[in-house]
Amino acid sequence: MSSAYANPVPGQKLLAYWRFEQVQHLNGELSQSIKGNPLTADDRKPTEPQPFVYDDSGNGNFLQVRGSKSSPNVFSDDVPSSETAGKPNQRSLTLKWTGECVLTMDRPLAYADIQKSWKIEASLLCNQLALEQVFICKEGLKGNLAADVSIGYDPMLKRYFVEVMCADGKARRVPAGSAVMAGKWYDICADAVYDEEHDLTTLKISVKASGAKNFEKPATIVVKGITMQHHAAMWVVGHGYPGGFPNSLQVDGGGIDEVKIWGEALPRKVGQNPLFTDAFTADPTALVCGDSVYAYVGHDAASVGGWFNMPEWLCYSSTDMKHWKAHGSILKAQDFVNANSTAAWAAQVVKKGNKYYFYVTLDGKKGHFITVAVGNSPTGPFKEAMPGKPLITDDMTNDSHRPNADIDPTVLIDDDGTPWMFWGNGDCYMVKLNQNMVELDGPITKIPFRNYSEGPWVFKRNGLYYNVYAADAPGVQAEQICYSTATKITGPWVYGGLVTGPAKYGFTIHPAVIAFKNKWYFFYHDGSYALDGTPGGDCRRSVCLEYLDFYQNGQIKPVALTVQGINSVKQK
Asked: Which of 144, 183, 269, 465 is deepest in the core (most CB within 10 A)?
């Protein structure tokens, strides 16, 4: 198909190109797609003989079938033209009701930032003109009734359209071209360009009959804000969003060919999210030392789509919360006796006197445990205070309803100098620490918290104690952040509600809260960001930062999770 424009917008990169001519096998080899045969799967996993639609862009964005052992979508020799860009065109994909192909969340395109500009080209074939159908969509947040972007057929207008979710939360549909004829191929080109200076996006769609020399007059609208709202989202071919709903806008007896997706990221601004771009980071903790803040994070070293692999803790420092200096690895899981070398889980660093105490979560052959390392500076070196003698082990909390209860320590040194430690997964425990900070000084107590899951962070403000924690709030599978307050650290605690919803992608979220230079800050992690073009994910997370505000009565104001972070608004 010939493009609607001579060249893509300057700065755009070709991110994916699905010609449907070749399939990639599980061993990496390529072969021509087989006419009449579908992509194949076994229990939702790709399987031979045709696992993936090959991505001719070279970026590895392979399409696969989802949710069916035998896809109704099959390769066809019905093509819009016999040649495309000088290459033979022999295959398209026939789309049938209930079938879909997806770009899974272990592919780079799923995380690509294309908010500056994007363009989607495709050839489409529609046979059921009485049905609303969506051929290509990039899903957005779960629960939304429209995708970030959809390209499809509108039966009332009898024309092809592009629909986008706009910054104001409204979906806008733009149709273009003449009335669609059944059984005839059409070329579609939709693009959006964001003008950051004026905060406006120009959205355009052009349509022509395949084989025609020129596109018809494009349809254009201008909207406020960006039109590609989310980084982490699944791309779907063959049905619209939301997938699995009774009316999923699935294509019935149509076809698709020559799909190209271009994109350009917004320029990164100092201080925006994610904070750190040299590694995947998670489970943030932060310590204020005079005019500096030290952020300590677990290093997510998991492979793409892999499970947790966290070998070490990294450290960063800042004097303005926007410019961060990397201090590299300052403590490793292997530095502790009896610890698994890939289990540098959530931690917290506190200062007492001239010493810095690094409370860490680890696991080993005998289960999870919490121990502490000590250093003479905020960047270490740190050494295990009592080698082989943890503060907390699993056999000390036999009343927990989860087996991995002893994780995620948070320590508060109260105004009278008494150190207290909270921790737990599923149940929250607390204990008083000895003045030496490396031994217990009293019994372990279980503290009831509503919706509590893990990751407590305890702090004090204006005489009121706060516990901000990851929560299993009803109705949402991924963790959210809740909080409770108390006038005494031993309770009783009063439930305060939600601080924020789940991360934009991932089943975990982990809080840290500090006050610095008369402002309050909320750290968390989010799996929705890519790193150097490689996907994020559940176990490839990135630490982020937002302002935290309070009502006059001390309640915490809800926090919105943003890309802009502390650049988005000024704290009141």
From this structure: 465
Residue 201 burial class via C-beta count within 10 angstroms: exposed 0-12, middle 13-18, buried 19 and up: buried
Tell me the pairing of strands 133-138 and 149-154: antiparallel
CA atoms of 446 and 437, how far apart (whole Å): 20
- Report the SS3 class of residue 291: coil
Among 335, 325, 296, 293, smallest CA distance to 313 is for 296
* Residues contacting residue 10 through CB under 8 Å, at least 6 positions apart: none
Cα angle, residue 354 at apex, residues 349 and 360 outer, rounded to 5°: 20
Q: Quick check: 311 and 339 in contact, CB under 8 A?
A: no
How many CA within 13 A on the CB side of residue 282? 32
Residue 242 has pLDDT above 80, yes or no: no
141 strand-pairing partners = none
DSSP label at 85?
T
Nearest to 61 by CA among 259, 332, 288: 259
pLDDT digits (tens, 9 = 90+) for 58-76: 999 999 998 777 789 999 9
Q: Please give the Cα distance from 94 to 74 (Å, whole number).
A: 5
Output the DSSP codes for 467-533.
EEEEE--TT-SS-EEEEEEESSTT---EEEEEEE---SSSS----EEEEETTEEEEEEEES---BTT
Pairing mode of beta strands 254-264, 149-154 = unpaired
pLDDT of residue 5: 47
Q: Is the CB of residue 260 less than 8 Å from the CB of residue 121?
A: yes
Compute the distance between CA of residue 459 and CA of residue 50 in angstroms, rounded to an integer: 55
Residue with token string 């998670």: 282
Question: Which residues is 432 bridged to in the sheet?
Answer: 420
